[in-house]
Design a protein that fits this description.
2 copies of one chain form a homodimer. The first copy, chain A, is of the alpha+beta class. Chain A folds into 2 domains: 175 residues, Ribosomal Protein S5, domain 2; 142 residues, GHMP kinase, C-terminal domain (Alpha-Beta Plaits), CATH 3.30.70. The first copy, chain A, has 8 helices and 14 strands. The longest helix of chain A is centred in the middle third of the chain and has 20 residues. The model of chain A has no long low-confidence stretch (mean pLDDT 93). Chains A and B meet through α5, α6 and α7 of A and α5, α6 and α7 of B.
Chain lengths: 336, 336
């Protein structure tokens, strides 16, 4: 598949971040990035990453035109090489990322970045792949990227195949079929000290509660699918809070503990409970960082944002509606 | 054993609170108050309850002379009746409690109260019992009361006997053999909404992490015994923090969640980590409430207290050295 005249060509794709409602935590295979559990997420419009693929071997991972430093660079380059190798291409791919939200701060930036990169890379290589196949490829870069292929509510299957061919995401409900959204309370703009990748490994190896986490996941997935199917928002919200608390419980029981919460995290959780006490349906969830994301219906986003802005420790608040799946902006879409 | 001229007689005992380093959470038999796990605690001088036993059937549980309201009253009366029945006495016992610290606020008041009450009651009934037997009797009133029978570092055995005869406490190390103490940061003087008794039951029934909690306890007990034996304070501290985080992890994974932490709890935990970063050995632990207790060596109590007082959300700070076991102040001690 050696190609000529590729040096000037670029392809471009745009993907949204997503936040898991039934959380992903732990890997059954770190090499192939296979999850220990399935998960269900909401794709978020407005937290977007745009990936531009080109051939520029000298500077292979840039963000807003600047070289990305450290380990993130190595991981991306290794992903790009894996994609090229998988499709028998000798083209050394390079990617530039533009994002409109903070990266590496527990806002699922890697989901948007790797989903957009995988899509643009397949487009560049002129590979034909279904969205499911694309999802499994994006997963290699970052597990949660598998979910950003689709919009709205999405399930990423754990799968059982050792090679990971059955560990891809499927859409559960498109964004336009249920007017959901998230209001994100940013509490700390700093990058986290430990990557989710390392933290997952440490927790799986040392938390005595990890097996309980694994055992409980299938029930939550099953209940969440039913609640989504029935458009039962209070149940979706309840499971969302339970799943996030269980995930954080497992991490804080690791040795040494991994504790993502800050005092402000508890302030915001309390504010969400106060909102509910007034009859407004809103539910918190947190990922591998202190920020609190609040799931609500789109009609309530303004009221939720106003409440979160009133919490003193909140730096700023983002509002995001349920968004659509990955789009190819330049080049041919890989899916059939 | 019907006695005459008892109406004017009183017996009196004084017991200290204790705080578990390897936590107690969950019951294997709620009726006999048998624990699902063993635990190890530090008895604290200065957090004391004095119990005066008399015969005054009309007003059987008073605190500082006033009738104790609600369920606490019923529990105490049922305990007093159980003790009397067990020793074939028809005497309807009454108790008055004086404490020098806040009750029902997660400060182990029930441990001190029930240990003092059990001791004074046996003295009143002129029963002869070993400290181990006394410990098993106090346990009927409140599990952690079994530990306050002894001073210093104490282990309460889970036991396997269905009747509970082997579920009593034993001393591990007397207070005078290791100059340990605790500095307590009071964050909320209010009484908790849910009793530990009810919370334990709810968590055992609904937390998917509960079996992991049970499975990990023996290792912690074993490691803690060794660390105490070796006077290895950093290891004692590390296990203390791990045990408390695991206990709180299990409760917050219940459905619905039981979350004892307040934002200030995390502030104090952070202050303790800051102290350690300066080379001072201090370790946090929390029970079924927001207050943070900080384990340290007696020589460091002043410095720890000063640090905790500097945390804005801390209402006040108590300092408590390792204390001694229960004492009989009026009447004959029951132990042989």
């Amino acid at each position: 598949m050696q190609r000529v005249d590729n040096t000037e060509r670029v392809t471009k794709a745009c993907a949204c971040a997503n936040v898991a409602l039934v959380k992903y935590w732990g890997k059954r295979d770190p090499e192939a990035n296979l999850p220990a559990v399935g998960s269900i997420s909401l794709t978020l419009e407005g937290l977007e990453a745009e990936a531009t693929i080109s051939m520029r071997p000298a500077d292979r991972f840039t963000s807003r035109g600047k070289t990305v430093p450290g380990r993130a660079y190595d991981q991306m380059v290794s992903f790009l090489d894996w994609v090229a190798r998988t499709y028998d291409s000798e083209t050394p791919l390079a990617v530039n990322i533009e994002t409109n939200f903070p990266v590496a701060a527990g806002l699922a930036s890697s989901a948007a970045i790797y989903c957009a990169t995988a899509t643009a890379a397949l487009s560049f290589l002129e590979v034909s792949a279904s969205r499911r196949e694309l999802s499994a490829i994006a997963r290699r870069g970052s597990g949660s990227a598998s979910r950003s292929v689709f919009g709205g509510l999405v399930e990423w299957h754990r799968g059982t195949d050792p090679g990971g061919d059955d560990s891809f995401a499927d859409p559960l409900l498109p964004a336009e079929d249920w007017a959901l959204g998230m209001v994100v309370a940013i509490l700390d703009e700093g990058q986290k000290k430990t990557s989710s990748r390392d933290a997952m490994q440490h927790v799986a190896e040392t938390s005595p509660l990890y097996s309980g986490w694994l055992a409980a996941q299938e029930d939550d997935l099953e209940s969440m699918r039913h609640a989504i199917h029935a458009r039962d928002f209070p149940t979706v919200g309840r499971i969302t809070e339970e799943s996030t608390l269980r995930m954080h419980a497992v991490t804080m029981a690791a040795r040494p503990a991994v504790l993502y919460w800050q005092p402000a995290t508890l302030h915001v959780m309390e504010a969400v409970r106060e909102l509910r006490a007034t009859g407004l349906d809103a539910y918190f969830t947190m990922d591998a960082g202190p920020q609190v994301k609040v799931l609500c219906q789109q009609q309530d986003m303004g009221a939720v944002a106003a409440k979160l802005e009133s919490v003193p420790a909140v730096l700023r608040v983002l509002q995001a509606r349920a968004g659509s799946g990955v789009r190819v902006l330049e080049g041919k879409a890989p899916w059939k």
